[in-house]
């Protein structure tokens, strides 16, 4: 059986939602980052990069959200991962996932993990400030992308779940999320999905954490 290694509220929630939407049987395994469980030797054997998500499969462990999401799409072909019936819809979804993982996520890393960019602590405040500035522009872009439809490929995909995650993180770093009303309305529709509700409950997260304070 597939095993998903996740931490509550981390970007692993994107793969978690995709698996839950797929209807596949899987075992969710909690690796709590706040308790440094991802640094323990037993987890480093699963993912030497010390990150979640990781997906245990009958063909070894797959890491990196985008690889996991594309595998879930190939295995199950359901909404919530990456479209499989239209190559252009798949490209749009992967395009957005790539930008989220390589750029928006990294702005948060600047704020929460400045030491990853330089050991020189005197530069950390500038790295953190740069992360915030980048996020202001990136969040404005997500707001502009949000509307009546889904973010990519004309259906619910992992890109929508990634945006859900960022909204909560935005609140955690004290950004004024009330400024993003289209994005918040978009997430309200996501929060109505039973699979999303089940994942939030399993991770111990309240739906209100994904809406403006
Ligand atoms: N490139 C990886 C990034 C995964 C990642 O950074 N995960 C975070 C949680 S959102 C993590 O495990 N952080 C642990 C740490 O930074 O020590 C992916 O897209 O899966």
From TrEMBL:
Top-rank lineage group of the source organism: Bacteria
Pfam families linked: GST_C_2, GST_N
Protein name per Swiss-Prot or TrEMBL: Glutathione S-transferase N-terminal domain-containing protein
GST N-terminal domain ranges (all copies): 1-80
SUPFAM superfamilies recorded: GST C-terminal domain-like, Thioredoxin-like
Native source species: Sphingomonas sediminicola
GST C-terminal domain segment(s): 86-213
Gene3D superfamilies, per database record: 1.20.1050.10, Glutaredoxin
């Amino acid at each position: 059986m597939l095993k998903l290694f996740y931490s509550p509220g981390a970007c692993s929630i994107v793969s978690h939602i995709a698996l839950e939407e797929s209807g596949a049987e899987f075992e969710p395994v909690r690796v709590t980052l706040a308790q440094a469980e991802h640094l323990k030797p037993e987890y480093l054997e699963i993912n030497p990069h010390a990150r979640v998500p990781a997906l245990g499969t009958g063909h070894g462990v797959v890491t990196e959200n985008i690889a996991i999401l594309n595998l879930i799409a190939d295995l199950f072909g359901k909404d919530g991962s990456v479209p499989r019936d239209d190559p252009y819809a798949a490209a749009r979804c992967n395009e957005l996932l790539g930008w989220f993982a390589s750029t928006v996520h990294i702005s948060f890393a600047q704020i929460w993990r400045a030491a990853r960019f330089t050991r020189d602590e005197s530069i950390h405040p500038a790295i953190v400030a740069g992360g915030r500035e980048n996020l202001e522009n990136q969040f404005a872009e997500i707001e502009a992308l949000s509307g009546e439809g889904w973010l990519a490929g004309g259906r619910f995909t992992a890109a929508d779940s990634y945006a859900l995650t960022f909204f909560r993180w935005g609140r955690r770093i004290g950004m004024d999320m009330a400024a993003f009303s289209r994005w918040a309305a978009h997430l309200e529709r996501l929060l109505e999905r039973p699979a999303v509700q089940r994942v939030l409950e399993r991770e111990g997260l309240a739906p209100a954490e994904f809406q403006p304070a």
